[in-house]
Amino acid sequence: MAAGTATQLPLDLVHYQDITDDPDIDFVKTHLQAIADGTKEAAEAAQDLDAWVTGKSTRRLKELRSRPELIEWMAHGSSSPSTSPNASGYVGCFFQVFPGLCTIFPPHHAGQTRVVAFLETLMEMPTHQVPELFPNVDDLSKVDNVALWPRGSISPQPFRVHAARIDHMCYGSYASDSEASVRCRNYQHTLARITMAGIVDCSFLCDLDGILPSSKKYTLPTHKVQSGTRPADIGGRICAAVQWLLDADKARWVYQRCNEKEKTDKANPWDMWSKEHWSIWKTQLKFYQGDDRVEPAAREAARKALERMAAVEA
């Protein structure tokens, strides 16, 4: 894809070879593609996923009860995940791949809104129980259940894994209009939306962390930052990071969270928001805005973010 053409267009939905051997992955890929191309709207997509998880685990429950010799038992007495109804395993299979969908649409694109609406619709579905495992080798009539889809039940772990993949993609491809950097920007905007909607808290994946100093020994402002990226190469990182600040509602949300405490817990890598970080981000963005080594698109993004930060402080 030529430089500049990726910034406003949907990108291809990328799947990774390390997960293609999963027997259920064909459903997942087809389902995600339907959300991506709009052949399934949010409500239908949520209902279909719920039906798939419920149906797969319920059928597995019946099969194992009819063929108990297939069940492997753990030392503590419950059935192993691989020989259980394992509803949570089907949920995990889907969300292992789902984060890739969050990279393909630019900020405010209808497709990105559809992705967020799909998650919101899942969270709004009536909570119901589905079979998970057999707790007792002597009584297969008993089964432990898990609940679908209480708010907060989606793990942030797959989003963390995908963020690491994107970091790997971006290595050596730093221009803000490269496909890797555009995917990073798109991902950050989607993560901000699903975090602020209360669906999955991905605050700890906020790329603003990447422009924080890499050590206390560096005087602000500094180009010695967590991402390890030089000013000449940091354009893509800046354009991704400020996705948490460019919209008024997002900047206000971040500002309110930062105002809740003076400093973050340095021992907790998940702790992102504080007055200290807000102040550092302002200083760093001013530095990048005025640094001729930073590409113009990123300097402009920094300028807009600073304007938004000033507006929410007023």
Keywords:
314 residues, mainly alpha, 2 domains, two-stranded antiparallel sheet, 47% helix, elongated, disordered N terminus, OpdG
Give a description of the structure:
The chain is mostly helical. The protein folds into two domains: 17-148, no CATH class; 157-313, no CATH class. 47% of the residues lie in helices and 4% in strands. It has helices at residues 25-37, 42-66, 87-97, 110-124, 157-170, 179-196, 235-241, 248-258, 275-289, 296-313; strands at 128-133, 144-148. A two-stranded antiparallel sheet has the order 1-2. The protein is elongated.
Write the layout of secondary structure elements.
Blueprint (H helix, E strand, L loop, with lengths): L24 H13 L4 H25 L20 H11 L12 H15 L3 E6 L10 E5 L8 H14 L8 H18 L38 H7 L6 H11 L16 H15 L6 H18 L1
Antiparallel strand pairs: 1-2
Helix pairs in contact: 2-3, 2-4, 5-6, 6-7, 7-10, 8-10, 9-10
